[in-house]
Amino acid sequence: MQRQQFLRRFASITLAACAGLAGVTGTSHAQTPVEVPFYFPVAVGGPITKIIDGYANEFMKANPGIKVDPIYAGTYQETIVKALTAHKSGTPPVTSVLLSTDMFTLIDEDAIIPFDSFAKTPADQAWMKSFYPAFMMNSQTGGKTWGIPFQRSTVVMYWNKEAFKEAGLDPNTPPKNWAELKAMATKLTKKDASGKVTQYGIQIPSSGFPYWLFQTLTTPNDVILANDAGTKVTFDNPKVVEALQYWVDLGKAGIHPPGVVEWGTTPKDFFEKKAAIIFTTTGNLTSIRAGAKFDFGVGMIPANKRAGSPTGGGNFYLFKTSTPAQQQAAMKFIQWMTQPERAAQWSIDTGYVATSAAAYDTPALKKYTADFPPALVARDQLPHSVAEFSTHDNQRVTKALNDGLQAALTGTKTPAQAMKDAQAEANRLLRGYK
């Protein structure tokens, strides 16, 4: 049913766009607004669609010559499949928010164009330079800017302060390194009379985005999983194997759930006190604030050899086969959506990190962060952050890594063998890009 509704809606948008283009010669620009079909992924909880619809309506009131039509295309994975399918059929969206890690895939498919040619004025150039450098790591390659940061995030640590008190731990002092994390998680783990664990000390999800959560261990262990060009990976590096061994050992110690841990249920497990510490996206901050019926803390990912977390989330992209008028209209919309005041409100409404320093200087975000300091943790982690893992042939290379991680976590392979096998598969896939 969802697919049928999507196809009907997409067909109507395409017909409307064609009708609008056909009528341009005989009517004024105001009567035939430029159509901007806009794919948006709904992957994280909250009233996201209402917020985006509101932004689109507000923009169109200020720009009556442009018609922005948000199309909610499902998860990030579903959205890129639909966007590339539409691209191959010659009817792509004009713009879309897709994962920052989709950049190489979109370039390889010749689906997108860089923003540089549209940034012609000094104001445009200043806008392009206004985003946090950590977010531009996954937005630029080959000297060009292919993505504009929008709903961006890092992974952060959430902890239940009540559980810390019960375990005799200082509720305001979270673990700062791997040794402290393991020691505290041991004290936080609870069992019933039969010996069954009722509360795990630490929970790191390993479904959905296993590679991304794994970067919360590889980054602190001072190792990067891929080069900037997206042509080489380092899965079999001893530091990578060591990081995976640490994760596996948490499960063997009985202080972390065994096997594969679901991405989607991890916040719920936190609400229900099944896990005292969790790692998840800062994009869940608003929903966790609403759902947790206890005092909780938000902190940076514990360090080992260094501090750090991967960035994550989505960028705006411009699709190549749309018309110049549509591309210009989309550029105007994207600039409008990423203005400091709007980026600030988006951060407040969703928990995502505001993408520029200027957004944190707005009165709205200053007041919000003064009242709720945990909202600053993800921003403060950015200087230590690394690019989210991304390569050419990204989906298949990422699958090789994810499969290796899950094999180690379920005990079907040792961490060393799992990473050796993942490395061999990645080398095969990336051979043609070197």
TrEMBL record:
Spans traversing the lipid bilayer: none
Pfam families according to UniProt: SBP_bac_8
Keyword Kinase: no
Taxonomy, superkingdom: Bacteria
Location in the cell: Periplasm
Main location class: periplasm
Protein name per the record: ABC transporter substrate-binding protein
Highest classification ranks of the organism: Bacteria, Pseudomonadati, Pseudomonadota, Betaproteobacteria, Burkholderiales
